[in-house]
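step 4 of 6: structure.
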Amino acid sequence: MQPVNPQLTRRRFIKGVIASGAVAGTTSLWYAANGQSRPAGAVERMIRLNVNGQDRTVDVAPQETLAYTLRYKLGLTGTKLGCNRGECGACTVLVDDIPTYGCSVLTHSFKDGRIETVEGLEAPDGTLHPVQQGFVDALGPQCGYCTPGQVMAAVGLLRANPNPTREEARQGLAGNICRCGSYDSYLDGVMRAAEIG
Amino acid sequence: MAYMHIGKDFVPPDVIGKVTGRIRYAEDYTREGMVYARLLTSPIPHARVLDIDASEALAMDGVYGILTADEVYPDGEPQSTGLKILTNHPTLVGEPILALAAVDEKTAETAIAAINVTFERLPFVLDPLDSLQEGGPNAFVGGNTFGQQGFTEAKWTADQVASFRAGNAPSEDAPTTGPIPTFVIGDLEAGFAAAEDGYIYEGSFTTAGYPHHSMEPRSAMAYWEDGKLYLHGTSQSLTALANDMAGIIGVAKEDLVFINAATGGGFGQRARAASIPSMAIPAKFSQKLNRPVMMRITREEEFTIGGARQGFQGWIKVGFRPDGVMSACDMFVVSDNGGKGGGADAFSAADCISILYQTEAVRFRGASIATNTAHRGAQRGPGQNQIAPIIAPIMDAAADALGMSRLDIRVVNSAQTGDVGGPQGTPLTSAYMPEALRQAADDFDWEGRQSRRRERNGSKVTGLGIGQGYHNAGRSGQDGIVMMGADGRLKIHSGVGNLGTYSYAGTSRAAAEALKMPWESCDIITGRTDNHLPITSPQDGSNSIFTNTRTCYGAAMDMVAKMKEIAAADLGGEPADYDISEERVHQIADASVGMTYAEVAQRAMELGGRYTGEAELPEDLHEWTQIAASRLAGTAFMGIYHDPAHSNNPPGFTVTCTEIELDLETGKFEILDMVSIGECGTVVHPQGLKNQLVGGAVWGIGLSALEQHLYDPQNGLPASTGYWQSKVPTYLDTPVRIDTGWVDLPDPENPVGARGIGEPSQGSVSAALTAAISDALDGHIFGAAPITTDMIINHISGTREDAVALAQNNYRGV
C-alpha cells in the first residue's frame, strides 16, 4: 500500500507531538496553555498566519494551540474540538497540505506554514470542494460534529493520492473518529470525491 | 404505493452547513460581554460538602462570581437520584459542586484552584454485588436503590451473593428491586418441561457499562434579554427537551428560547432535560451575573456528566423444544445503576426476548443497584442491545444441538404480523422478521458460505454469525403544525431535534407528501423554539420516524381539509367534490375549477378564525404547542393536528450476517464481510436509513468487542474518560464496507407505513459478531460483552477467562 501522505513522515509527526506536549496532556493544563492573559516571557505575540490563502495578523499566546487560535481568535468555528487531546481528529486542519490535529500543535509553530480550514474549501462562487460535494452526495455526515475534520483529512489524502482504493481511504481517515459510526458513508463520500475531483 | 417523497433521497437542508463548517453548535456562538464558567467537580466518589471557602477566589481580578447548589436549590436539593444541576452531595467522581465565572477560562481555573472545599468522605462502591451483599457499602447515604419509597437498601446474604458470583441461579427468594423488578409471561415450568427433550442452556453473563461519548461536549451558553432566557444548548430533542428544561431552570415556558440548530451526537443521553441539567448552570449563572455565560465542557467532564450504559451481571436459562421453538427463558439481572440513578435496561432486555423470539414463557427478575460510577441512562437500545450478544451464541448452540440450521432456528422463533409480545401481550403493529432473515441470508449468501464455517487458514479461523435486533420504534399523542403564506410555500414547523439522523427532515416530508407539494416549495422551520414549534416526543427510543410522520401528515391533512372547505365555499359544491394536485385545490369533476395554493392561503388569511389558528384549535394540544400556535395565530394559513394515542407496539427489527477471520495466535479478528437489513416498515429516507444501519453496526462492534468502563477500585477514579481508553471504534475496527438493505413493507398504523430503526441496528450487529466469534472458537459461549482480545487469548490458552466473567462489569481483574 502507498503511504497516505509521503510528506507526513514519522519524524515530522513526532516533532509535532513534542512541540505540543505541553498542551496535550491534561485538560487543566489545556486551560493554562490557552491562557488569554499576558505571558511572562518575551515571545513575540503578534504573528502573521496564512490561513485559507489570507495573511492574518493575530495575537497568540506562547502556549496557544492552533485550534484555539482558529476558533477563538479568528472566528473559524468550523474547526471543532471534540476531545482537545489528540484522540478524535475533529480539529483536523491542513498545514502545508498535511492533515494536522489543531488541538495538539502550537500556533507559534506555524508562522511560516500554509494553514487551511474547512471554511477555505468552497470556491468564491459557492461551489463546494469535491470532498464536500462527495460527502453531500453520499450523505456522509450524521451529527456533523466530526465532519469538518473528516473533510480536511480527506482533502489531505486526495492531494497526496488522488485515486485511492477504498482501503487506502480507510487508512487515510483512520485518525478521525465518528461516534455516529458513519465511516462507511464517509468512505463512500471520499470515493465519490475522487470520481468528481 | 407510489409516493412523491417517501422512499426517495434528498439533500437535508443542514448537510451543506455540516460539510462547510457553517452550521453552528452551542459552543460556536459568542455574545458581547460573555464571561466563562468553569466547574469545580468532586475529586472523590462519594462525599458530603461541609464547607466552601471561595473568599480568595472571589477577590481575584477578573472573577465575576460563583454559583453553588444552595443557590440553584434554595429549598434544598431534590431527594432523589438523578443528575443535579450542582450538588453538595456528590455520588461520583467529577460531579459538579460549583461553577465559577471569570473573564477567561484561565482566570476561572486559577480561581477555582484557590477555592477550599471541605468534604466529608463517605463509603463508596463500584460493583453492585459488593453493595448488594449484607454489610456492603451503599452508593447513597439512604441506601443503594431509589423508588417510590425513597432511598432503600437492597441486600442479599453473603451466601446468595457468593453463589451468584459463581454463576449459579439466584434462589427463588432472592430479593428483587428496581424500576420494574419482575414479570412473568406464560407457564415457565411447562416451557422448560417441553424443552427437556430439546436443548436447555443455563449460565451467567456480564455486559459492560460504557459511556456515550458524543463528539460534541455538552457546552452551553446563555443570556437574558428583555425577560427572556436565550439558551444555546445541545439536545437530541428540541421542543420536548425545552419543555422540561424550562422547569429545571425555573423559567416560564413562554420565556425560554432554546437554540439548537445542530447537536453533535446524542445516543440517548441528550433526549431529555433530566439527563442534561448542566445546561441550567449558564442559564442561572447569567441571570445572577446579568452577563452572557459560556460554559465549555471538556471531554473528561463529558464522560462524567454525559452518561453511560447500564452494565449487567446476570444469569439466564433458556429452553428450546425439539422443533427449535424457544419455549422458556428465565433471567435474573443485577444492573449497575451508577451514581445518579439509571433505567430499566434489564426489564427491556427480557421484554426484547419475549418479542424478538416470541418466547412462550418468560420470567424476569432483577435488582438495580447503585454504584459510585458514571450516571446511567438510556443508551442506544438500552437493554435490548445488551442482551442481543448474550442470546445469539445460545441460539446457535441450540441449533447445533437440535440439528437445525442457525438461520432456521431464528425463522422458527421470529415475530410476524399478528404476534404479541412483552408482559402485557401488546400486539405488534406489523412485523416481517422472517422476510428480513431471508433477505439478509440471501444478500449475504449465508447458505453458500456455510462451507467456510470454522475453516482454518494457518493460525486464522473463519467464523460466521447471524444476529437480530429489536426495539420498540414509535410513539403517538404529539402535535403537528404547518403554515402557508400568500406565496404558497409550505412551512413545516418541526420540534424534532437535529441529532444527526435527519429525521427532522425525513418526517417533514410526510407533510409535503400529504399536500403533494414539490420539496422545493417547502421550508422546514426548526432550530430554535422562538420559531414556534409543536411539541414532540423526545428523540429517543427510535420513535421519531413513526411518531412525527403521523403528526406532520396529520397537520398537512388538516390543511388539505381546510383548502377544500374554502374552495367549496368560494367556487361551489361540497368539500368532498374537491381534490388537490400540482399545488392547486380543484374540483374532481373539472380540474380547471380551482385555486392555487397561494390563492387559497390568501383566502384563508382573509377568513381568519380556524383557518389561521385564531379559533377552534384541536382539543388536547400540549401546552407547549398551544403557546406556539397562539404566536402563529393570524399570521398565515394554518394546518394543526393533535395525534391521538395508539396502543400497539410498532417494532423496529434488524438482521445482520457477518464473516470474520479470527487469529488464534493473537486473539484479534477482522470482519471480512457484513450485511445488515432493516425491517422498519416503509422506508422514508434511504440514505438516512443506511446511515442508521452502518452507524448501528459500528456501535455493535464496540458493544461486542471493545467498549467498557474501567475504574480504579481503590479510589473510584474513572480511567476511561477519553476515546482512546473507552475504545470507541475507529475506521480500522470496522469493515471496509458494510452492505445494507431493507424489507420495505408498510406498517398499517402509520400514514406512510413507517417505523423506526436507530437502535436495533446495533443489536443485530453485536449479536452477529458475538455469534461469529463463538463460531470461530468451536461454539464457545463467553457469556460476555465485550469479548476482548485478552479474553479470547485466555480461552484459547485454557486459562481463566470464564472465572472472572462477573468481575467485568466495571473493571476486570481479580
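step 5 of 6: annotate
 - Chain B is about 30% helix and 20% strand.
 - The domain at 475-642 of chain B is CATH 3.30.365.10 (Aldehyde Oxidoreductase; domain 4).
step 6 of 6: archive
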